[in-house]
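WARN retry 2 of 3 for item q-0093 after timeout on previous attempt; input resubmitted unchanged.
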Amino acid sequence: MKSLIRSLRPSRSWSFLAVILFATGCITIEEHYTFKKNGSGTMEYVVDMSSMLGLKDVFDKSGDRGKERKKDKGTNDGPMTTGFDERAKQLKGLEGIKRVKQKNKKDGFVQSLSFAFADVDALNRALNVLMPDSTGVQQTFFHWEGNTLVRTNNQYAKELGGDMAGDPDSNDQSDILESMKYTYSFKFAEKVKEVKRAEGVTQESPSAKKLELATDWAVIMKDPEALDLRITLDK
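OK item q-0093 returned
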């Protein structure tokens, strides 16, 4: 499977970090979008494991960590390999995608990949690189229906949650899934008129043109369409 969890593999002696990550659910996936009037915009994809920063000193004291830093100098992998290096290369080769940037913050516990897109077709091509599922089918994540921006997801998030937490019906795994967050933010050139979202997805509107949505993997695993959206603009 090509889902992110297969790329979030531990590097060398940090294999036990992955065990802690999957056992505690200390991860948030973020998607941040801006849309201009002409249909172009920007997208930033973030993997946030900063809640694990308190454990950093424990790992740094491991016997091989000093050698690891020297070996890994110049790489962008951080404490966990996200596969962003390879995905950045793929994005740079896509039609309609520009300004691809990769960043690491908080000692690699927050990793992001951002780009500018010419239109929703280019955005969809990029999202299929960032969020492929096991079917290998190219997904139309976004399309416009008049003034309404429609988001339709593939199985990426559900497969990722299944890899992380195993059986979602067990009480222990349910707690882990609830602690794993998935967030969206959207900024438009026009005011947001109406939003249709799934049950279990919260909504905040910092301004008339900005929208923030959040949920967790317990919701995603129960509802395959939990991340689908309809956002109508006041044009």
